[in-house]
Specification:
By secondary structure, the chain is α/β, with parallel strands linked by helices. It has 19 helices and 20 strands. It has a seven-stranded parallel beta sheet with strand order 5-6-4-7-8-3-9. A six-stranded parallel beta sheet has the order 10-15-14-11-13-12, sandwiched between helices. Strands 16-17-18-19-20 form a five-stranded antiparallel beta sheet, with helices on both faces. Keywords: ATP-binding, Helicase, Hydrolase, Nucleotide-binding. One of its GO terms (molecular function) is ATP binding.
C-alpha cells in the first residue's frame, strides 16, 4: 500500500514481502491513494524519490474537508453550479479570488454532482505538480472510501479510479489519455481554468466529447467545470470557445471586506528602467529576455533592496517575484550581501530541493523567498505577509495572481504589504492602482483597500469636475476614451489629420500600428485594403469590440466595397480586446505591413502619399516627401479614409452654429439694455 510521507511529498512502498501491491501492473505503477484512518495524513502519489528530512517536525495536517463547514459563498458557488447543470448546461466556469478555497469547493462538488447511469468517475486537470498534489490531498481527506489516482510523470493512473487527478502534460502524452473511458465520467474539473484554451486541454475536452456541440440537449457527456481566480485571457484566445457560462464570481475586494482574506497594504515605487524597447510576447506581456535586460541592472536591484529594507524589513515572510533566473540570482545575492537570509526557487530547481525550501519558508525559517514563474498560481503559503513585485507586467491576470499569494488568512499576520516596483508607465505596464480603476501612474504608500477605494472616488470626482469644466468651455465634442483623438479647436482639418497623440495609448498596449480616428475608434490596416477596427460597443456602456472588414473582389457589383464585417472580440477590458484583435491580425495580415517598428515606416513618404494628402491642404502649405515619414503619412491617410475629415466638418459646423447663436443673444441683450419703453414696469 501507499502511505503519505511527512518528509517532503515522497512515497514509500510498504508490503510484507517487499512486493508491489496488487493494484499495480508489471509495467505501470498505479498511484491509488487509500485513507488508512481518520488520524493519519493523506497519501499523495508522485514519482518515487528518497525522503528529505526537514530541519523541524512538520505541523499536523489540517482537518479533512469532510469535517469542515463550508463558508456561505462556497455553498452558494456549489449551488450555482448544480442549478446550471440541472438546467442542462454542460460547460461552466467559476471565478473565485485567490485564497477563497477553490480546491475545497470543487472537492465538495464531486459528490454533489449525481452519477448518470454508469458515469460516476471524476477527472481533475491541473498544469503544475503542486496543484496536482494539492488536489489529491483534499480528495483523499474528503473521500476516505474512494479510490484516488494520480496521472503525473512516471506515476500512471489505472483509469478506473473514482477520482483521478492528472497533470495536463502527462495525460496528453503518448496514448495515456486512451485508458480514460468518457462514458464512465460524470465530471471533468479544471483548476486554473484560464489555461483551458491551450491545445493540450482542447485535446482532453475533445476526448470527452466537450468540443464543437451547439446544443447539449440529449447529449451524454460529463459536465465540465473550470475554476480560476482570473477567468480571462491576455493573448486574444477566447474562453467562450470552451466555457459557455460563468456561473459564479467572487472578487478579492469583496472577500477582503468580508474578512475571508487578509487586508492588503499597497506601496508603489517608481524605478528608472526604460521599457520602451522591450517587445511584447505572444501572450501580450513583456518578452522575458528583453525585460530582464532592462530590469536586471545594478541600479534597479539596489533600489529593490533599499525599498524592502525601508518598508518591509520587519515582515516575517516576503515573497519576491523576479523576471528570470539571472534576475533571481542577482537579487538573492544582493539580499545576502545585506545580511538577509534569502533563498530562491525557479522552474529549474530540482523538485525535492524546491519542496524542502518551500516547506522551510512556510515554517518561517528564513524571511525572503525569491522566484520566477513558480508561485503565480495555486501556491498555498498563508504566512506570506509581504509580496515584492520586482518585475513589471502588462498582464492584469499575472498581477492579480502575484498579489493573491499574500492574501490568505494566517494567525500570525494582520495584513499583507504589497510593494510594486513600477517602471515607466508609458509602455502599457499595469500596476496595483489599476486594479482599483486608478491611473497606473498613481503612487501610493501603505494604502489599504479603504484608502485605495477612497482615492478612486476622489479621482473620479476630479475627472467629473474636469469633464464638466471642459464641456462648459466647449474644448471638445468627442467622447473621452483612453487615447481618443479629441476635437480641440484645431485651426484646420490638416492639423487634426496630422495629430497622432491619440495613437500613443493603444501603441503602448500593442506592437501594431493602430491609428486613432476619433470617437474612441482605432484602425489597423493591411496592405490589401482589409482592416480591423476597435470601437465602443453599442450593446452596453463601457464595453469594446473588434471587427474585421474584408474588401470584396472588384467584380462584385455592390454599393460597399467591403463585405459584412465580422466581430472577432468583445468585452469590458479595452486591453483584452486589443490583444484579441492583435492575435487575429497575426494570422490575417502580413506582419511587415502592420508592425509599428518596421523599417519602411521610418523612410520618407512616397510621392503618391504626399499627392493624396495635399488634396486636403492649402497650396501654400503643400507637403514634400521629405517632410514626413512613410508611416506617418500612412497614418494620416488612414484618418482621412475613416472619417476624421467628415467629423471635423460636422464639429466645425456645430461650433459655428453655436458661435452665431451666442453672438445673436449677446447682440439682443445689448439692444434690450439700451431700450426705454413708456408703460408699466414689470415687477
Amino acid at each position: 500500500m501507499f502511505r503519505y510521507s511527512p518528509h517532503g511529498l515522497a512515497l514509500r512502498l510498504l508490503t510484507g514481502a517487499g512486493r508491489v501491491p496488487s493494484c499495480t501492473t508489471p509495467t505501470r505503477q498505479a498511484s491509488r491513494l487509500h485513507r488508512r484512518s481518520p488520524s493519519s495524513p493523506p497519501p499523495v502519489a508522485v514519482a518515487p524519490s528518497p525522503p528529505i528530512p526537514p530541519p523541524k517536525p512538520r505541523p499536523p495536517p489540517s482537518p479533512p474537508p469532510s469535517s469542515i463547514t463550508l463558508r456561505e459563498y462556497q455553498e452558494e458557488c456549489i449551488q450555482a453550479v448544480l442549478s446550471y447543470l440541472e438546467a442542462g448546461h454542460k460547460r461552466l466556469g467559476v471565478s473565485l479570488a485567490t485564497g477563497s478555497g477553490k480546491t475545497v469547493i470543487f472537492t465538495h462538488l464531486i459528490d454533489r454532482v449525481p452519477a448518470v447511469g454508469n458515469a460516476s468517475q471524476t477527472l481533475i486537470l491541473a498544469h503544475r505538480r503542486e496543484l496536482v498534489e494539492q488536489a489529491a490531498r483534499h480528495c483523499a481527506y474528503a473521500y476516505p472510501d474512494k479510490h484516488v489516482d494520480i496521472e503525473m510523470g512516471k506515476v500512471h493512473a489505472s483509469g478506473a479510479a473514482d477520482i483521478t487527478v492528472a497533470s495536463i502534460q502527462s495525460i496528453t502524452s503518448g496514448d495515456r489519455l486512451a485508458k480514460f473511458d468518457p462514458s464512465r465520467y460524470k465530471l471533468v474539473l479544471v483548476d486554473e481554468a484560464h489555461h483551458i484554451v491551450g491545445q493540450t486541454y482542447l485535446d482532453v475536452l475533445e476526448h470527452f466529447g466537450l468540443r464543437h456541440v451547439a446544443d447539449w440537449t440529449g447529449v451524454t457527456v460529463p459536465a465540465l467545470v473550470g475554476v480560476s481566480a482570473t477567468l480571462s485571457r491576455f493573448d486574444g484566445k477566447r474562453l467562450g470557445t470552451v466555457i459557455d457560462h460563468i456561473v459564479y464570481h467572487r472578487d478579492y475586494v469583496d472577500m477582503i471586506e468580508e474578512n475571508w482574506l487578509t487586508d492588503v497594504l499597497f506601496t508603489t515605487v517608481e524605478i528608472k528602467a526604460d521599457l520602451t524597447k522591450v517587445s511584447t510576447g505572444a501572450n501580450g506581456d513583456f518578452q522575458t529576455a528583453a525585460l530582464s535586460q532592462a530590469i536586471n541592472t545594478n541600479e534597479t536591484n539596489d533600489l529593490v533592496i533599499r525599498t524592502w529594507s525601508a518598508k518591509a524589513k520587519g515582515r516575517n515572510s516576503t515573497l519576491v517575484f523576479c523576471v528570470d533566473l539571472s534576475h533571481v540570482t542577482n537579487l538573492t545575492n544582493n539580499f545576502r550581501a545585506c545580511g538577509v537570509d534569502a533563498q530562491f526557487v525557479t522552474g529549474d530547481t530540482p523538485a525535492k530541493i524546491r519542496s524542502a525550501r518551500i516547506e522551510a519558508f512556510r515554517r518561517g525559517e528564513f524571511p525572503v523567498l525569491l522566484n520566477c514563474g513558480v508561485f503565480t498560481e495555486g501556491t498555498d503559503i498563508p504566512n506570506i505577509d509581504c509580496v515584492l513585485l520586482a518585475r513589471p507586467t502588462k498582464s492584469r491576470n499575472l498581477l492579480v495572481q502575484m498579489i493573491g499569494r499574500g492574501m490568505r488568512l494566517h494567525k500570525d499576520k494582520e495584513n499583507c504589504h504589497v510593494i510594486d516596483m513600477v517602471a515607466a508607465l508609458s509602455t502599457g505596464v499595469v500596476s496595483t492602482p489599476t486594479l482599483f480603476g486608478l491611473d497606473p501612474a498613481e503612487i501610493v504608500d501603505l494604502a489599504d483597500m479603504k484608502k485605495m477605494t477612497e482615492l478612486k472616488e476622489r479621482r473620479e470626482s476630479e475627472k467629473q469636475r474636469e469633464a464638466q469644466a471642459a464641456a462648459v468651455k466647449q474644448k471638445t465634442i468627442a467622447t473621452k476614451l483612453p487615447g481618443t483623438v479629441t476635437f480641440t479647436d484645431y485651426d484646420s482639418v490638416h492639423d487634426l489629420i496630422a495629430d497622432g497623440t491619440g495613437d500613443q495609448y493603444i501603441r503602448n498596449l500593442s506592437q501594431n500600428a493602430w491609428v486613432g480616428v476619433g470617437d474612441g475608434k482605432y484602425v489597423l490596416t493591411g496592405n490589401n485594403g482589409n482592416y480591423l477596427i476597435i470601437e465602443p460597443s453599442d450593446k452596453s456602456e463601457g464595453c469594446f469590440r473588434a471587427k474585421c472588414y474584408w474588401k470584396l473582389p472588384a467584380d462584385k457589383k455592390v454599393k460597399s466595397p467591403y463585405g459584412t464585417p465580422r466581430t472577432i472580440a468583445e468585452g469590458e477590458s479595452f486591453e483584452h480586446v486589443v490583444h484579441a484583435a492583435d492575435t487575429y491580425a497575426a494570422d490575417a495580415f502580413e506582419h511587415m505591413w502592420i508592425y509599428k517598428n518596421q523599417a519602411w515606416r521610418r523612410g520618407p513618404a512616397s510621392q503618391a502619399q504626399v499627392d493624396f494628402l495635399n488634396k486636403f491642404r492649402p497650396k501654400e502649405d503643400a507637403l514634400k516627401p521629405s517632410d514626413l515619414s512613410k508611416g506617418k503619412a500612412g497614418d494620416m491617410i488612414t484618418r482621412i479614409k475613416h472619417g476624421v475629415k467628415g467629423r471635423f466638418d460636422k464639429a466645425s459646423t456645430k461650433q459655428r452654429v453655436a458661435k452665431r447663436t451666442k453672438e445673436r443673444a449677446e447682440s439682443l441683450h445689448q439692444k434690450l439694455q439700451g431700450q426705454v419703453q413708456v408703460g408699466p414696469l414689470n415687477p
